[in-house]
Each structure stands twice: as C-alpha cells, then as structure tokens.
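Need tokens for this chain, all 212 residues.
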Amino acid sequence: MSFFTSENLERAQVLLGLYPEKRSALMPLCHLAQAQQGYLTKEAMEEIAKLLEIEPAEVFGTVSFYDMFHTEEVGKYLVSVCTNVACLLRGGLELLEHASDKLEVPVGGTTEDGLFTLEEVECVAHCDKAPCAQVNYRFFGPLGNDSFDQLVEDLRNDQLTDSVPPHGTLSRVFREAPSLVENEVIIAERVAMDQARQERQAAKDSNGGDSK
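Here are the structure tokens for all 212 residues:
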C-alpha cells in the first residue's frame, strides 16, 4: 500500500517528469510527503527511495541535513522565534521566553493539543521587522508579548488559515509538468536552426565577412 494518497501519488509522478534524472526530484518529493503528513515517516522515505530508485539511506541523509524536514511529529503550527543578532538586540530572547510561557512548552516542545511546536532559529532574513518569528515559514514581526499572544489566539481560532496552511505545506500552488514536445518537432526545429545558421554564414562569406 502506498504512503501517498492517490492524488499525491499522481503529483509525485508529475514531479518525476520535471527532471531528466529521477534523483533530482528528491527534495520536491520530500516536501510533498511532509505536506501530506506534517513530517517525514520511515514509510514515506522508503517509498520516495523506491520512486527514485535509490537507497532509503540516501533519502534519510538528505532529510537529516536540512532543518526544514522533520522526522518526528510536530504541531500543526511550527513557531520559529529568531534569536540572531538583529532580533537578539531587540528582545528576541525575551520573546522566545514569553512564547515558551504562553504555549506552556519548552523550546523544542509541542503543546498537548498538538497545535503548536516551538523552536529557536537563526536569522530568517526578516531583520527589518525584528524581533520576528515564522509560523510554518510565514513571517510575522515585529512581535511583542501582546502581538505574539494575539497571533497565537488567531491561529488557535483558525483566523489565519488563508495565509498560514498546516505545517509541511510550502506552497498551495503545485508545479505542473510542461506539455511534452514530440521528437519530430524538436528535430525539425534543430534542422531549421542549423539551416538558418548556415545561410547567415554564407551571406557573411559572400560579403567579405562584413555581414552580421
């Protein structure tokens, strides 16, 4: 039985068709699996390996390298508070401590209802809005204690579903494969290009090399 839903299995096949080498679809397939489950299970990585005709260890090696991939269950909303220099100077650590108190979990923990996971992150390139945070990689800032509390309540009450999808969904727009071009059309276009190039060269030679 496939890990992927029938819809996502079709999408997986589309992703495979976007690349000349199957292995190039590794990260897009991992994102697709994480969008379905919220994190990457052993079964998901094994099926990705099968689709790509590589070893599961190769999939796990990639997944374990990138912070955006998770092999353990996280909350519906991954709250990432930045504590790098710009945010640190404007209260990033204090915001992280407040977030921990508000959500009643330590950094790296998930709330009992499974809604929120809190993490500390390095710079997320939103320095002009420091201190800032991301929720499922969507930016929010500058944030103080009150605005963070409001953000949590809005998420809890499904007020931000249009802008913040569940964890794992990087984009709601799925990339479709381009229409396949018949080999005969490609060959004919190449012949025409070669012929045009030869004609330009002939014209250049007949004019003593002055024609472009």
